Amino acid sequence: MDEEQNKMRVSFLGVRGSYPVPGKATLRYGGNTTCNVVEAGGHTIIVDAGTGIISLGIELVNRHLKTKEPICATLLFTHVHHDHTFGFMFFKPVYFQSTIISILGPKTFAGDIYQELRDLLVSPYHPVALDEMPMLATFGNLMGGEVLRFRPGAQNPQLMCSSTGADPDDLVVKVCANPNHTKLGVLHYRFEYRGRIYVFATDVEAREKGEPTLCEFASGAHLIAHDAQYTDEDYYRGNPPKKGWGHSTVKMAVKTAQITGAEKLALIHHDPEREDDALDVIEKDAKKLFPGAFLAREGMVVEV
Ligand SMILES: [Zn+2]
Ligand SMILES: [Zn+2]
User: Fold this and answer.
1) Pair 71, 93: CB distance under 8 Å
2) Which end of the chain is more exposed for a tag (fewer CB within 10 A), N or C?
């Protein structure tokens, strides 16, 4: 087994928070909202369906039309705010009968992932209802604490009580529910494959001293992708101040990386009002605090 096959491939397809921002001033970091893809052991796991998922859908369908192989994927939702779901109805594979997709997301007081996606696609807001989409979809609810095991060659994940018993060739995904995002909270995902660990933690309001739930969950990660929508200026002195809006500052993300012993820190969920030049400054400052920090850019691929 060569070194490359031991690694996870993480693709950042949408790194913008809140709403898409196309235009000249956002070309370098990208204007699409959250979509992250993890590939390992032959599995493709998509996290969130912000507008960044749309280009992935086109690519997967083009490949399918050429090879005739069905599209098989797993789509995990962190939560269902619009910036994390708005690409779903434009994700081309859902309109193909041969597509097999497992969709898992949070169950909250407001409903479960099936109900929430169904309600998002209701007429007159979208012409195709969830149940009318030709894909073969299975839905699963996550409440935090679950362990998903992706076995080699298997299309659907197995739900386990713990990672004890997982084989070294399995891709294991752990789920953590964190209440520290406005009203209904958010799910974080931890990917483990052949001893390498990647944690995706978007839409979380951490703390200056570290947020205990996330720090414990992300312990030992090689790469953490962490919400860093705000600067200290935005958070404490903005007009209005953004404290309590459900997102972290760059310093909070750095603190998480320091406490957990991460090698690298990808800052994500960039503020839509922040243009490329301002993001360059944030990245430079973040590197001074934590040398392994960088700002995720749309289209960036990182091996973990
Ligand atoms: Zn968001
Ligand atoms: Zn959110």
Assistant:
1) yes
2) N
Q: Near ion ligand 2, which residues have CB within 5 Å? A: 81, 203
C-alpha 34 – ligand 1 centre gap (Å): 7
Q: 3-303: what CATH class?
A: alpha beta
What residue spans define the domains of the chain?
Answer: 3-303
Q: Judge contact between 126 and 95, C-beta under 8 A.
A: no
Cα 247 to its chain centre, rounded Å, is: 15
Place of tokens 């619009």: 82
User: How far apart are the C-alpha atoms of 124 and 127, rounded to whole Å?
Assistant: 7
| Ligand 2 midpoint to CA 18 (Å) | 7
| pLDDT per position as a tens digit, 206-262 | 999 999 999 999 999 999 999 999 999 999 999 999 999 999 999 999 999 999 999
For residue 269, the ligand closest to its alpha carbon is 1
The continuous run of DSSP H or E covering 178 comes out as: strand 171-178
CA of 183 to the centre of ligand 2 (A): 10
Collapsing DSSP to helix, strand or coil, 117 comes out as helix
By CB atoms closer than 10 A (0-12, 13-18, 19+), residue 95 is middle
**Separation CA 268–CA 236 (nearest Å):** 20
